[in-house]
UniProtKB/TrEMBL annotation:
It comes from the Bacteria. InterPro entries: ACAD10_11_N (IPR041726), AGP_Transferase (IPR051678), Aminoglycoside_PTrfase (IPR002575), Kinase-like_dom_sf (IPR011009). This is Phosphotransferase family protein. Residues 57-283 form the Aminoglycoside phosphotransferase domain.
Length: 369
C-alpha cells in the first residue's frame, strides 16, 4: 500500500495474491469436508477466489444437494502461515464470536456463520463458512471515487447509501457493555480502558510488523495520540473496526450484508466514525494527487457527525483525534504489508513508502495545534 505502488488508475500494486493456494488444489479437500459436514448427497460444484485481494482468503464455492438445488457459500480462511498474516493475533474464532453477538443483538444483516472449522487439516488453515449474499460493495481498488458504479450513481443515491452506512455503524454501537455481556472481548494485557487497548494494539501491530525498519511518522503519531487521549467513562461498545462502504454489500440501494469483522474490538463510537471519515479522506487525497476530482462532498466529518447525532441523540467528540487514530492504524497495516512484500527500497525514506503518509502527517500536525 505504498504511495509508489499506487498506479495511475488508483490500483494498489501491493495487494499481492500470489501467495494464495491454488483453488484447484483445494477442491479435493473441500469436497471431503463437504462430504463430512453437509447432508448426504451434497456435492461441490465449483470453488474459486474472487479477483480482489485482501488480508483474508475468501474462497467462493457452490454446493448442489440431492434435489439438484445449488446454494452458494463463502469459506473465509485464515492465513496459511504466520509470514502471510496481516495481524499478529489473527483469530477467525474470535471474529465469529463478534459476528454472532452483533447478529444476536441487532437487526443488521451480518452473515450467519454456518460452520466454523478449526481443524487445519482440511484446507491448511481454520475457516468459517457463510452463505454468499447478493450485492456489491463500494469499490476499494481502485477506490469508489476514482471510477465505477458509485461514481456513476446520482448524488441522491450516494447520499442515501451514505446515510445507510452511518445507520449501520450506529446500530453496531448499540451492542454495548451496559446492554449485554461483552467481557469475553476484553483485552486486559493491553490496558483497562478500551481506548487505551486500541492504541496499545496499534503500537503492538507496528512493532510486530515493521520488520526491523523504523517509521518516524508512525512513531510520532503514536506519541501524540498517547499524550492527548480523550478520557471517557461511558460503557464500551463494539467497534466494527474496518468501518467503510467497501465492507457493505448493497443491492437495489439497500444494505444486504455487513462484512469483514477481523478488526472488531471494544471501544467508543468515535473510533468507527473517525475511521469512516479517515478512509474517505485517504481515498480523496489519492484521487486528487492524480488529478481526479473524486467525491469531495462525501463523508464530510461534520455531515457524518450530524447524521449520527440525528440517529442516536449522541454528539461525537474529538473526531480529529479519532481520525488520527484510524490513520495510524492504517499506517501500521501498511507497514506490515510493506514488510511482507520485502520492505521499502534500501536507502529510501521509509515514511515516503506509505501511501497514507500525507494524510497522517497532516492529521498529526493538526493534533499538535
Amino acid at each position: 500500500m505504498s504511495g509508489s505502488h499506487v498506479n495511475s488508475n488508483g490500483r494498489n500494486n501491493l495487494l499481492d495474491t500470489s501467495w494464495r493456494p491454488d483453488a484447484d488444489e483445494l477442491t479435493e479437500r473441500l469436497t471431503g469436508w463437504i462430504a463430512e459436514r453437509f447432508p448426504a448427497g451434497s456435492r461441490l460444484v465449483q470453488a474459486a477466489f474472487p479477483e480482489e485481494g485482501g488480508s483474508s482468503l475468501n474462497l467462493m464455492f457452490s454446493v448442489e444437494d440431492q434435489e439438484q438445488q445449488i446454494e452458494r457459500y463463502v469459506a473465509r480462511m485464515s492465513s496459511l502461515s504466520p509470514q502471510q498474516q496481516t495481524f499478529p493475533d489473527e483469530d477467525l474464532e474470535r471474529e465469529t464470536r463478534f459476528m454472532r453477538v452483533v447478529r444476536r443483538h441487532t437487526n443488521l444483516p451480518v452473515p450467519e456463520i454456518l460452520h466454523y472449522e478449526g481443524d487445519r487439516s482440511w484446507l491448511g488453515s481454520p475457516f468459517l463458512v457463510m452463505p454468499r449474499i447478493d450485492g456489491r460493495p463500494w469499490p476499494s481498488d481502485p477506490p469508489y471515487n476514482f471510477s465505477g458504479w458509485v461514481l456513476d450513481a446520482t448524488p441522491e443515491e450516494r447520499a442515501d447509501m451514505q446515510r445507510r452506512l452511518i445507520a449501520v455503524i450506529a446500530e453496531i454501537h448499540q451492542v454495548s457493555a451496559d446492554r449485554c455481556d461483552l467481557r469475553e472481548f476484553e483485552r486486559p494485557h493491553l490496558g483497562s480502558d478500551p481506548l487505551e487497548c486500541q492504541l496499545n494494539y496499534i503500537r503492538e501491530l507496528y512493532e510486530w510488523g515493521r520488520g526491523g525498519v523504523r517509521y518516524p511518522l508512525v512513531e510520532t503519531a503514536l506519541e501524540r495520540l498517547s499524550s492527548s487521549m480523550p478520557r471517557r467513562s461511558e460503557p464500551a461498545c463494539i467497534n466494527w473496526g474496518d468501518s467503510r462502504a467497501g465492507n457493505l454489500l448493497f443491492h437495489e440501494g439497500k444494505v444486504t450484508a455487513v462484512l469483514d469483522w477481523e478488526g472488531a474490538s471494544l471501544g467508543r463510537p468515535e473510533v468507527d466514525v473517525g475511521f469512516l471519515c479517515l478512509m474517505h479522506r485517504y481515498y480523496q487525497q489519492r484521487a486528487e494527487s492524480l488529478g481526479i476530482r473524486g467525491l469531495p462532498e462525501a463523508f464530510r466529518p461534520s455531515d457524518v457527525a450530524a447524521e449520527y447525532a440525528r440517529l442516536t441523540g449522541r454528539e461525537l467528540d474529538d473526531l480529529l483525534w479519532y481520525e488520527t487514530l484510524g490513520a495510524t492504524r492504517a499506517a501500521a497495516i501498511q507497514v506490515r504489508v510493506m514488510a511482507r512484500a520485502g520492505g521499502p527500497d534500501h536507502g529510501s525514506d521509509p515514511d515516503q513508502a506509505l501511501s497514507i503518509a500525507p494524510v497522517l502527517r497532516d492529521l498529526t500536525a493538526w493534533l499538535d495545534r
